[in-house]
Amino acid sequence: MLNTTIPKDVRVAIIGGGIAGCSVAYHLAALGWKDVALFERKTLTGGTSWHAAGLVTQLRNTRTLIDIARYGTDLYSRLEKETGYPVGFNQTGSITVAKTNGRLAELRKIASLGKSYGIDIEEISIQQAGEMWPGLYTEDLKGAIHIPKDGQTIPAKTAIAMARVAQDNGVKIFENVKVIDIETTNDCVSEIKTDQGTVKCEYIVNAAGMWAREIGLMCGVNIPLYGAEHMYLVTNKIDISKDMKSLRVPDDQIYFRRDVSDSDSLLMGGFETLAKPWGGRSIPDDYHFGLLDPDWEHFKIFWEAAIKRVPEMEKSGINRFYVSAESFTPDNNYLMGEAPEVKNFYVAAGLNSSGIAAGAGVGKAVAEWIIAGYPTMDLAEVDISRFSAFHNSPSYLKDRIKERVGSVYDMHWPHLQPKSARNVKQSPLHSYHEQNRACFGEHAGWERPNWYAPVGVEPKMEYSYGKQNWFEYSAQEHNAVRNGVGLFDQTAFAKFIVEGDDSEKVLQNICANNVAVKNGTVVYTAMLNARAGIEADVTVTRIEANKYMIVTSSSTATRDLRWIKNNIPQGAHCFVTDVSSSYAVLGVMGPHSRQLLTQIVDVDLSNQEFPYMTAQYMYLGYIRILALRVSYVGELGWELYIPVESARNVYENIMGNCKGLDVVHAGFFAMDSLRIEKGYRAWGTDIIDQDTPIEAGLGFAVDFSKSDFIGKAALLEQRNKKINKRLVMFKLDDPDVLLLGEEPIYRNGDLVGRTTSANYGHTLGCSIAMGYIESEEGISKEYVKDGSYQIELMGERYSGQASLVPFYDPKGTKIIN
């Protein structure tokens, strides 16, 4: 029995009664939070969830997505038995087949990762695939994998079962109540306004699916998602087993399962390469269990592929053809967590046609985040704060989503770049990079040179799971930086100015390292949470007594700015300003960088006059710039911060005054291989808010002598105990193997961890990786040294060496030069 009279106040207001909203309600109640109300504009599951195919699979590309999906499989398999409410889950297992060698390589890589986290995955022969799925055409297949514990569920029943359990545990559920506005107080949620009255609340969870963007705009929160049509059909009766496994043929962009409403029929759907956006800012108010006009011309490519793959379908014919809509995000990852714009406003949306498989895990993670006040697992890749304001542009979303629907089943190549909605942000030097044949990649909206093609070579990516077409060209850039001088355009950096009478005091509390330093000092530091997890990885430069510049990655700009703002005490004379668009940045890196710059600047660049980790203003030609002697590549070098209007002048001055030096343009692929050789961490892969500086090997960037800072108590406690997790460097013995990251690590034959990031170390002549290893006996130097290590790639294990220090220049003598 649903509730009818809306309350005047609740602790948590959930907006949206699909799989995500019902899951959040279920898990909040299970964790003891009863003062919760869920508001659905029409009736439960009437938006997108009712129309879902109901495939429940654990196959994903990263640990985070695997953990979320695996939990759903576990919960759905026991939900009906534990609660008595019907779910319709059938643990049939699933098969995914590959038509190309590239797809088979992808499946093998994912299978290795999945097995390392306890998922039962096996590679099967083409013959076995045909035997497990009778009627499957297999002549053009290269291989297949089988996941026995995957399943199929009835989407609406599954969501409603969670809603009923939540209601049994005290959650109030309201249908036909539309949220029309949201009020905030001091940038924190305070109440929702509905068409039936106002409800005060401490927390809001936006689980409104396709309507989530509209809900967010009510209080200034950017939620970048957009609707797109999704189509599937159901055949007439066909001879299939009740326990027929789900089948995915991603190279044909299609999937199959037994239809839940007619056990003798087959359901087939697909994800087209060029999708049809729908809804946007004008979803009809009466859209409810909505169906759209069929577009057979758009769908027939799937039908043609399906009847080739399962010839019996053509004989049985089509019983019904459905077209509905669901929402997708710009990067095909979920939108989860607390919004950066408004405190206590949480999001559980943008599930990209994986809502049923992911819904349980998403709801659990968001519920735990609300109660704990922080994410209880690695959610960096799905945290909504990864996006910027421009991502919420309707035009941008409409253009990007056309491509993103198809990418659900497209190849997930290493270094894959989107084709749509590009050129949002460009360096003022963009045209020079074009002239030098740069191949650009997108990073947080920025067009950055990934590599440069020589004359006669098209600057275009050719994807594979091996050494891609740019490998040798990037190697040349890498070696130029190691042995000469390279020029990087790092304009995409996020740059913040923190200033005010209390700026030092505030930053001393936020930063783990000591920033009470002389003017002109650059400090590398982490910003920690109360658990000592690394929230941000930045450099802090003291410009003046009451003025600092903080530099971080553009991909973490939104979350880092939020963290700083949220930790400035009320009443403090301290202000933070985003000045990212004010400065271009050129990195001049390599052993010849001093020789190059000395010819064109007006200051002494010697070690004595311009030491490492210091900054000075200087003139480069006509232009006054700020130079930081820092390095993310492990060589002598300077980052030059240039007024954006003068960037072209500075660039031309550098390139026009080389005087015998071969200044090589270097891209971000080279920067990545250089930094991994040197063991420099990257936030989001090697370090996140779940890792501490001690675990990450960054204890040198913590000043324990400071009176206090956020996370100090937790870090001191950890320092006095044995360390059970450490980030370790790995160097493969086989020079021909290319590691990519997210690979299982074995020590003495036992699984101990996974790689976080990896690349080919052109100076060292082999693949280099970083990764965390874990052991209850503690990770010491002796433990690392005494082990025999292997890293698994696509089902094969390769031996390597492990070290707590970088394999390249471990003492940093090259940087000091």
Task: Give the helices and strands, then pairings.
Elements: E1 9-15, H1 19-30, E2 36-39, E3 55-56, H2 63-83, E4 94-98, H3 101-116, E5 122-124, H4 126-132, E6 143-147, E7 151-152, H5 155-168, E8 172-174, E9 179-185, E10 188-194, E11 197-206, H6 212-217, E12 226-235, E13 246-249, E14 254-258, E15 266-270, H7 296-309, H8 312-316, E16 318-328, E17 335-338, E18 345-349, H9 355-372, H10 394-404, E19 425-426, H11 430-435, E20 438-443, E21 446-452, H12 471-483, E22 485-489, E23 494-499, H13 503-510, E24 522-528, E25 534-544, E26 547-552, H14 557-566, E27 575-578, E28 583-589, H15 593-598, E29 615-620, E30 623-628, E31 637-643, H16 647-656, E32 663-665, H17 668-678, H18 712-719, E33 725-732, E34 744-747, E35 750-761, E36 766-774, H19 781-786, E37 789-793, E38 796-803, H20 813-816
Parallel strand pairs: 1-2, 1-11, 2-8, 4-13, 11-18, 19-21, 22-32
Antiparallel strand pairs: 3-7, 4-6, 5-6, 9-10, 10-11, 12-15, 12-16, 13-14, 14-15, 17-18, 20-21, 22-28, 23-26, 23-27, 24-25, 25-26, 28-31, 29-30, 30-31, 33-36, 33-38, 34-35, 34-37, 35-36, 37-38
